[in-house]
Amino acid sequence: MLNSIISKIPIAALLFAAIHAHACNDAVVLVHGNTGDPSDWSNTYNELLNRGYSAGEIQRPDWGSKSCAACNNHNGSEEEPVVDAIVEALAVSCTGEIDVIGHSMGATLAAKQIADYGLVGDVDTFVGVAGAFRGLWSCGTYPWNVWNSTCGYWGLSVSSPFLDWLDGKPLGNNVYSIKSWSDQVVCSTGVCTVGGIHSSRIRGEDATYSFSYGHFGLQAYTASFQVDLID
User: Fold this and answer.
1) E strand or H helix at 89, and its extent?
2) pLDDT 10s digit of each residue in the chain, 231 long?
3) Which of 103, 80, 88 is nearest to 32 (CA)?
4) Is 25 helix (H, G, I), strand (E, B) or coil?
5) Residue 102: CB partners within 8 Å, gap ≥ 6?
6) DSSP state of 75
7) How many CB atoms lie within 10 A of CB 155?
8) Is the peptide bond before 143 cis (omega within 30 degrees of 0)?
9) Of 23, 34, 60, 108, whose Cβ has the fewest other Cβ atoms within 10 Å?
10) Could you give the CA distance from residue 202 to residue 131 in angstroms, rounded to a whole number?
11) How far apart are CA 114 and CA 82, in angstroms?
């Protein structure tokens, strides 16, 4: 009986069902922000699961000090968990490519690994959420008023050597930024722009999107939009 039923189904329909029953997704790397936690991505993680991604296709590296925000930067021990997660994602990705979403300092930290290790050809989509790619005025302008590691040479002061080096580096086939004009971190001094451009924007990006959710709300409340960008 089953064979007779199957024989009446058009071959094209069977192929369509087979393809969609075994959807091939880019593996995804979600990089939290300074003193953050992998659980900060709960909304995005659950959205990915709801759209058919498996848990094994989602990497959430845990990096940096949780108690000393001023101690973390983009060089050294903070990097290892992130690059390890990228390598693991590439190993399990059935497309051979990955998507990377980073929040706040996690965006610039992930970007550094992509640039350092020449992985741009392996990244289908890069999304920076509330990043500070052009620096933080609260950190000052390098080398003046650089009072901690987070704002230093490898940190987020405006025109730090690190950010100047990162500026313009290709990060993927598709690059997007998600920003807020009421960001409690990026706009903490009352000024969101550096050189007239919002600091969360990425040079060479394909598009940028603004929401009114603030620094942490951007991560939590744009989960569906984030996945739209990579799906």
Assistant:
1) helix 79-92
2) 434 444 444 554 444 444 444 579 999 999 999 999 999 999 999 999 999 999 999 999 999 999 999 999 999 999 999 999 999 999 999 999 999 999 999 999 999 999 999 999 999 999 999 999 999 999 999 998 777 999 999 999 999 999 999 999 999 999 999 999 999 999 999 999 999 999 999 999 999 999 999 999 999 999 999 999 998
3) 103
4) coil
5) 30, 31, 33, 108, 109, 110, 111, 126, 127, 128, 129, 131
6) S
7) 26
8) yes
9) 23
10) 9
11) 10
Which among 186, 92, 65 has a CA at the least distance from the CA of 130?
186
Whole-model pTM?
Answer: 0.90
Residue 83 identity: V
Residue 209: closest CA among 131, 157, 111: 131
Cα 28 to Cα 1: distance, rounded to the nearest angstrom: 42
User: Per DSSP, what are the bridge partners of residue 175?
Assistant: 126
Structure tokens at 148: 């901690």
Q: Which residues, 6 or more positions from 80, have their beta carbon under 8 angstroms from its beta carbon?
A: 63
Task: Round to whole Å and give the CA distance between 8 and 3.
Answer: 9
Task: Give the Cα-Cα-Cα angle 47, 130, 222 (nearest 5 degrees).
Answer: 25
C-alpha–C-alpha distance, residues 150 and 9, integer Å: 61
- Residue type at 141? T
189 contacts: CB under 8 Å, gap ≥ 6: 137, 138
Residue 143's identity, in one-letter code, is P
What gap in Å lies between CA 82 and CA 38, rounded to an integer?
12
